[in-house]
Specification:
CATH class of one domain: Alpha Beta
Structural class: alpha/beta
Shape: elongated
CATH topology of one domain: Rossmann fold
Strand content: 5-15%
Bound molecules: zinc ion
Largest sheet: 3 strands, parallel
Distance between the termini: 62 Å
Helix content: 25-40%
Number of helices: 9
Strand order of the largest sheet: 1-2-3
Radius of gyration: 22 Å
Length: 326
């Protein structure tokens, strides 16, 4: 090797060093955003465990955000119960818990910004008039009736919004024809879920969203808002959704699969790992939650997660929740 090549070699190693340094700087931040309208159930445990393992297995942080915007649905004390349940399963979080109810003035600022940009408009349609999707754009050029405006909608476009989901693959929607202009501020005065989620993910520095596949089709709307607000797009992973015997998603409304705190947490963590295709050893169900989490962190493999919804296991019997959690 001639001496003239030294500078080249030197440059490469310098570049390597720089790349590694950048890798370390880009921190992975995941989050779990339960609604305090009921206790966590098996479906929400899957979402919590999946997002925890996905972030923490990469050395990232995992945050908790309480989606308590809808004060009608919020049950007092339920936030504390959810946090206790997460601790029971050794799903420990980083930093302080963020309550969305503390953020309303910030959401209002974003709404004012949208009003200035001319991208939102008042809608006076009743729920009955716009039942079913997409919203036909009735109030796009001014309220359709003399009734007072009830909500604020954001203008959508005919552009295809597509993204790659880590489990579900390519997914895209043309919002104008598939959802229509969607609500940013609800008729009851609460800021809509999509806006609060996007704004808080950005404020908290979240880099990846792991949640149930029932929210897959809400993602293009959230990406659309991210673009309007000039936020970075996140990495999305939509996990299969646990269903009951009739194929219904486990939820508060249809009553399903409560987590029995008298059972060992290892039992549920084992079942959740099985549900997520991680193939845990059977003995893991008799272990402490910490041991199960350690096993999950060591073996987490996103390629093993099945895309389809399914019934978790007949070992579980029936009971209970919403938005990002079940
Ligand atoms: Zn309308």
């Amino acid at each position: 090797m001639g001496i003239s090549q030294y500078p080249t070699v030197l440059n490469y190693s310098l570049l390597d060093g720089l790349t590694n340094a950048f890798d370390e700087i880009i921190m992975v931040i995941g989050r779990f955003a339960p609604t305090p309208s009921g206790p966590l159930h098996f479906g929400s445990l899957i979402a919590a465990l999946g997002s925890f393992l996905h972030s923490r297995s990469k050395g990232g942080e995992w945050l908790i955000r309480i989606d308590d915007l809808d004060t009608v649905r919020t049950i007092p004390g339920m936030d504390a119960e959810i946090l206790r349940t997460l601790e029971h399963f050794s799903l420990t979080w980083d930093g302080e818990v963020l309550y969305q109810s503390s953020r309303t003035s910030f959401y209002q600022e974003i709404i004012e910004q949208f009003i200035k940009q001319g991208v939102i408009y008042p809608c006076s349609c009743s729920r009955k008039e716009v039942s079913g999707s997409p919203y036909p754009g009735t109030c796009r050029n001014g309220p359709s009736s003399k009734r007072a405006a009830r909500s604020l909608r954001i203008r959508t476009t005919d552009q295809l919004i597509q993204f790659h989901d880590q489990v579900q693959g390519e997914f895209g929607q043309i919002l104008e024809t598939e959802t229509g202009d969607f609500i940013i501020k609800r008729a009851d005065g609460f800021v809509a879920y999509h806006l609060a989620t996007v704004v808080d993910d950005a404020s908290q520095g979240v880099t990846e969203v792991v949640r149930g596949a029932d929210l897959l089709d809400s993602t293009p709307r959230q990406i659309y808002l991210q673009k309007l607000l000039e936020y970075s797009q996140l990495e999305y992973t939509h996990l299969p959704v646990a269903t009951d015997e009739t194929g219904q998603k486990l939820s508060k409304s249809n009553g399903t699969l409560a987590l029995d705190t008298k059972r060992s947490p290892g039992y549920y963590l084992y079942l959740a790992l099985v549900f997520l295709g991680q193939n845990p050893p059977q003995d893991l169900q008799y272990e402490k939650s910490k041991t199960c989490i350690e096993w999950g962190l060591k073996h987490w493999d996103i390629d093993r997660i099945p895309a389809q919804s399914s019934r978790p296991s007949n070992a579980l019997s029936s009971t209970e929740n919403h938005s990002e959690t079940g």
